[in-house]
Specification:
By secondary structure, this protein is of the alpha/beta class. The two termini are about 30 Å apart.
Length: about 325
């Protein structure tokens, strides 16, 4: 796919969706609801090995709920992670490709069954290949601190991401989604990789935030966005896996910092304890609250809205319904 064609696909989808496309929601949350056990450094990527049929089922549930964009199950799927499980390099790369294949197959199956149904309000979804941060691979919560230590530099981060990026692009997704980036250094690594590898499909880079003001590293979003704004290969920027009550103020901030499309997909508001590996009780948004705030987020400039951890297909259904009713 040429870069211009890819951009057109994304822009057309946003336009068909009424100016704001809906992406899917929490993946691990939904896999667990179907009985998957993912308490593992590979997290939801473990299902690529053990339960691929559940991955496709979850994709279909999000499409049925109204998702215009599916994100693949590759967030925590990395070559080093698979190698540490005793898999070969070839097996690891095959699993990365499978993450895209499962999403594409689900999208095509759903579209074939709905495209000719009278009154159907679905769009043909796009598939975004998920590329989680280095901290997600470490599985130590550092994607929420941005503290990778003194031994991690730009070269190391590019080396970490490069082969996964190449394999995922070869598998044929429509988009790339760099997710939960916690610092300027990793954002720079992603930008340089897109250029060095001459990537020809659209991409977005999303940061996380633990305080609603800065990236987890403490760097300002202005510093981080300055890196992204210089790149013609980064087509959208935003925030994911941050508490939803941060989104309104972050959207106002982001509108002043960039002219790129803005993506927001917060978690439910529950807080993940990366060391204890469990969710801590905290103030969270229910589906009814997402239904109220989604149109506000769109009106403040969001072009893609979805959910992250602990959101479900019912959350996405509420968001999709609210956006359609108010567009």
């Amino acid at each position: 796919m040429g870069f211009e064609k890819g951009m057109s696909l994304l822009e057309d989808l946003i336009e068909k969706a009424g100016g704001c496309a809906v992406m899917d929601g929490g993946f691990a949350t939904q896999l667990e609801s179907h009985g998957a056990s993912i308490n593992d450094p590979l997290w939801s990527a473990l299902c690529l090995i053990k339960d691929p049929h559940l991955i496709k089922q979850v994709h279909l549930e999000y499409l049925e709920a109204g998702a215009d964009i599916l994100v693949t199950s590759s967030y925590q799927a990395t070559i080093p992670g698979f190698l540490s499980r005793g898999l070969s390099l070839e097996e690891g790369e095959t699993l990365l490709k499978k993450s895209v294949k499962l999403a594409v197959e689900a999208r095509d199956k759903f579209w074939d069954s709905t495209r000719s149904v009278p009154g159907n309000r679905y769009n043909r979804a796009l598939v975004a290949a998920s590329i989680g941060s280095y901290g997600a691979y470490l599985a130590d919560g550092s994607e929420y601190s941005g503290c990778y230590g003194p031994d991690v530099n730009l070269v190391k981060l590019k080396d970490f991401h490069r082969r996964r990026l190449q394999v995922l692009v070869e598998a044929g997704p429509d988009l790339l989604a760099f997710e939960t980036i916690p610092n300027k250094l990793e954002a720079q690594a992603c930008v340089e990789l897109l250029e060095e590898e001459n990537i020809q499909i659209p991409s977005w880079i999303c940061f996380s935030s633990v305080n609603g003001n800065n990236a987890p590293s403490g760097e300002s979003f202005k510093e981080c966005f300055d890196v992204l704004n210089k790149s013609t290969r980064v087509n959208a920027v935003g925030i994911n896996c941050a508490p939803p009550h941060f989104i309104e103020s972050l959207l106002c901030k982001f509108k002043e910092l960039t002219t790129k499309a803005i993506v927001v997909y917060p978690n439910s508001g529950e807080i993940w304890d990366g060391r204890a590996k469990k969710w801590k009780p905290s103030k969270c948004f229910g589906d009814d609250t997402f239904e109220v705030v989604a149109p506000r987020w769109r009106d403040l400039g969001a072009k893609i809205i979805g959910g992250c951890c602990r959101t479900t297909p019912s959350t996405i259904r509420a968001i999709s319904k609210a956006l359609k009713e108010t567009s």
